[in-house]
TrEMBL record:
InterPro entries: MFS_dom, MFS_STP/MST-like_plant, MFS_sugar_transport-like, MFS_trans_sf, STP/PLT_plant, Sugar/inositol_transpt, Sugar_transporter_CS. It is found in: Membrane. One of its GO terms (cellular component) is membrane. This is Major facilitator superfamily (MFS) profile domain-containing protein. It comes from Glycine max (Soybean). Belongs to the major facilitator superfamily. Sugar transporter (TC 2.A.1.1) family. It is a multi-pass membrane protein. Its main location: membrane. Keywords: Membrane, Sugar transport, Symport, Transmembrane, Transmembrane helix, Transport. Residues 25-477 form the Major facilitator superfamily (MFS) profile domain.
């Protein structure tokens, strides 16, 4: 069944309709983002719950009780064991992403999504039933395996299923689903914290089984992408039938020809894509695969995502108020990502990067300034300043929500040629996990030592990344995946490298 509007690319190629088949498939695949977001949101919430801390991190619990007299506000939650609970997921995700690359390329996007959902479901069971910290961390490692597979396969799946003119909106659905997952987790944390008996944290952790079950079962019914069919089996007829179904039209020969042409290098390099991406002609894509996920993590967003309730407790809010404040930031983040879906294919990627970067930098400087001037080692902020901090953090989250949040996944997923697409996405996910782990593992210690300076630290990185995008990232909106190499050949900087490589290839030197 096909519904919606006919879409025509800038090159004049008719790319079909917005079909219900594609919409439902992408909604199901985007559940991979929900499990990731739920885990991010739930982790920050349960680590601020006193019964959870008392059971698993007793030293932190005691420091929190003594905070007013002996322990600095900034150092209450400084515990390597506590941060290991958060960051262990990303170690597992880092290792898993490379295995996921092989499975995604050799067996298809769909199997990776199924494996991701199943592993996450197993980790959920261990976490909810944990009776010691070791069970918690083993459960986190399984969750990391699930997230590693999902984050590697889902953005590729969404970009390959999408119409070129709507690729930004559909791929941004992954970040939207991350936001929905985080918001759901914050709401659940706020509710379970009020459960008498101190076992609400178990329900918070166990409820992750709901989106994980939906993803695992739903992924079994997902179609494979035409790109993957061509890459793995070279079955042109099967790919054509799938294209006709997802585009809602019979005449898909032009798009099929582009897919076949784009896949031809991958037939001879199927097992060497990680080596292939190191070649000179892919230098721009490799730089972006390394730089974009690194910059996404040093925005400081995971400080808010992981530790928002702890941060709000640092400035003097109570347990329940801290969780409610985290809900508010979750609403803002989800709403801004939703807005991004509607404007990313109109305004373009670079414009949103610029707007979001300026917004994040200004809000971080204001938060850092207020904390430097008014938050001492003991006592909290006044209600007025605490409210301003909350508002500025919401503005910061909104800036991330329509820039580096969704675009950090969108841009890498759309810039790689098919022959290196799975490898490139794996590098992107691996770099993201490396620096997510570093930030998660070190933030509470950095907060203790840097104090308010931590916000200026991340603000400085926002300036660097915004400058990088302005000079080195070409606009990719509306460009078909199979024609993406043109944006590098026409860019003021990259054309020197790509052009030189092309000339040497033509002469037979490489």
């Amino acid at each position: 069944m096909a519904v919606g509007l006919a879409i025509t690319s800038e090159s004049g190629q008719n790319n079909g309709k917005i079909t219900l088949y594609v919409v439902l498939s992408c909604m199901m695949a985007a559940m991979g983002g929900v499990i990731f977001g739920y885990d991010i949101g739930i982790t920050g919430g349960v680590t601020s719950m006193e019964p959870f801390l008392k059971k698993f991190f007793h030293k932190v619990y005691l420091k929190m009780k003594l905070a007013d007299d002996k322990v600095s506000n900034y150092c209450v939650f400084d515990s390597q064991l506590l941060t290991s609970f958060t960051s262990s997921l990303y170690v597992a995700g880092l290792v898993t992403s490379f295995f996921a690359s092989y499975i995604t390329k050799a067996f298809g996007r769909k199997p990776s999504i199924v494996v991701g959902g199943a592993a996450f479901l197993a980790g959920t069971g261990l976490g909810g039933a944990a009776f010691n910290v070791y069970m918690l961390i083993v459960g986190r490692l399984l969750l990391g395996v699930g997230v590693g597979f999902a984050n590697q396969a889902v953005p590729l799946y969404l970009s390959e299923m999408a119409l070129p003119r709507l690729r930004g909106a559909i791929n941004n659905g992954f970040q939207l689903s991350i936001g929905i997952g985080a918001l759901s987790a914050n709401l659940i944390n706020y509710g379970t914290e009020k459960i008498e008996g101190g076992w609400g944290w178990r329900m918070s952790l166990a409820m992750a089984a709901v989106p994980a079950s939906v993803l695992t079962l739903g992924a079994l019914f997902l179609p494979e992408t035409p790109n993957s069919v061509i890459q793995r089996s070279h079955d042109k007829q099967k790919a054509k039938l799938m294209l006709q179904r997802i585009r809602g039209m019979e005449d898909v020969q032009a798009e099929l020809d582009d897919l076949i042409k784009a896949s031809s290098p991958s037939k001879t390099n199927n097992k060497q894509s990680l080596k292939l991406i190191l070649k000179g002609r892919y230098r721009p894509q490799l730089v972006m695969a390394l730089a974009i996920p690194f910059f996404q993590q040093v925005t400081g967003i995971n400080v808010i995502a992981f530790y928002a309730p702890l941060l709000f407790r640092t400035i003097g809010l109570g347990e329940s108020a801290s969780l409610l404040s985290a809900v508010m930031t979750g609403v803002v983040g989800t709403g801004s990502t939703f807005i991004s879906m509607f404007v990313v294919d109109k305004l373009g990627r670079r414009t949103l990067f610029m707007i979001g970067g300026i917004q994040m930098f200004v809000s971080q400087c204001i938060v850092g300034g207020i904390m430097a001037l008014h938050l001492k080692d003991h006592g909290g902020l006044s209600k007025g300043y605490a409210f301003v901090v909350l508002v500025m953090i919401c503005i910061y989250v909104a800036g991330f929500g329509w820039s580096w949040g969704p675009l950090g996944w969108l841009v890498p997923s759309e810039i790689f040629p098919l022959e290196i697409r799975s490898a490139g996405q794996s590098i992107t996910v691996a770099v993201s996990f490396i620096f997510t782990f570093i930030v998660a593992q070190t933030f509470l210690s950095m907060l203790c030592h840097f104090r308010s300076g931590i916000f200026f630290f991340f603000g400085g990185w926002v300036v660097v990344m915004t400058t990088f995008v302005y000079y080195f990232l070409p606009e990719t909106k509306s460009v078909p995946l199979e024609q993406m190499e043109k944006v590098w050949q026409e860019h003021w900087f990259w054309k020197r490298i790509v052009g030189e490589v092309s000339d040497r290839q033509h002469k037979g030197e490489i």
